[in-house]
């Protein structure tokens, strides 16, 4: 594949991601994507024969973006639990700051009955056997490690999901949101590490 072809395909995927996120699958026409990418409809159809195929590819990219960059961190046998928390927090904040609509977009697709996206990354198998699950269990042997992972995801992901609500009620302004997120970048590791150090009995 030539450099020009790669560039065109990337442009299509970026345009499709933007339009699907704004309009949803049902509200998007392939013509909208072609216009956003600055190409003609025939060229788009050359790369992707249907809207369904293009949407599937966009979703695979988004799933890999949301989970693929985190998995090497949580499965690393050489880093401590504390280091994993620091690294995962930084990585998630970076990803979500650049892609604030990513969580809702991915969650809405995964919930669909016929979604095949759960097969893109074997989340269950990887998480169950990951170093971080074992390390959390060693810290808190009486509790399911998922409690701590869900708490971590809530702390990192939920502010981006809640952003429209926060803005609607004028609890935070657009210009202040990134500063708020940068503060959470420092606070989340402290909160999670504190929870893991607490003496909790079943």
Protein topology:
Blueprint: H1 3-27, H2 30-37, H3 41-47, H4 51-68, H5 71-74, H6 81-98, H7 102-110, H8 123-128, H9 131-139, H10 146-168, H11 174-197
Overall pLDDT: 87
The profile of the biggest β sheet is: none
Helix amount = over 70%
* Low-confidence segments: none
What is the strand content? under 5%
Shape: globular
Q: Order of helices and strands, N to C?
A: HHHHHHHHHHH
Spatial separation of the terminal alpha carbons = 58 Å
Task: Give me the Rg, rounded.
Answer: 20 Å
Count of alpha/pi helices: 11
Q: Report the structural category.
A: mainly alpha
Let me know the number of strands. Answer: 0
Domain HTH tetR-type: 6-66
Keywords: DNA-binding, Membrane, Transmembrane, Transmembrane helix
Protein name: HTH tetR-type domain-containing protein
DNA-binding region: 29-48
Structure keywords:
HTH-type_Tx_Regulator; 11 helices; Homeodomain-like_sf; membrane
Task: Walk me through this protein's architecture.
This protein has 202 residues and is mostly helical. Helix content is 75%, strand content 0%. Helix 10 runs antiparallel to helix 11. The chain starts with a helix and ends in a 5-residue tail after the last helix. The model has no long low-confidence stretch (mean pLDDT 87).
Summarize this structure briefly.
The protein is mainly α.
């Amino acid at each position: 594949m030539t450099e020009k072809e790669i560039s065109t395909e990337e442009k299509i995927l970026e345009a499709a991601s933007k339009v699907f996120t704004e309009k949803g699958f049902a509200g998007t026409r392939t013509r909208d994507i072609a216009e956003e990418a600055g190409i003609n409809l025939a060229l788009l159809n050359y790369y992707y024969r249907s809207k369904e195929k293009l949407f599937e590819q966009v979703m695979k990219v988004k799933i890999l973006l949301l989970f693929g960059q985190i998995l090497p961190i949580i499965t690393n046998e050489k880093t401590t639990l504390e280091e994993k928390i620091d690294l995962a927090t930084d990585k998630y904040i970076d990803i979500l700051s650049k892609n604030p609509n990513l969580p809702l977009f991915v969650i809405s697709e995964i919930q669909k009955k016929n979604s095949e996206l759960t097969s893109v990354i074997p989340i269950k198998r990887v998480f169950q056997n990951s170093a971080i699950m074992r390390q959390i269990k060693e810290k808190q042997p009486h509790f399911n490690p998922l409690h701590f992972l869900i708490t971590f995801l809530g702390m990192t992901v939920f502010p981006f999901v809640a952003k429209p609500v926060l803005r609607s009620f004028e609890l935070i302004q657009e210009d202040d949101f990134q500063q708020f997120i940068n503060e959470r970048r420092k606070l989340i590791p402290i909160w999670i590490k504190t929870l893991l150090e607490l003496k909790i009995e079943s």
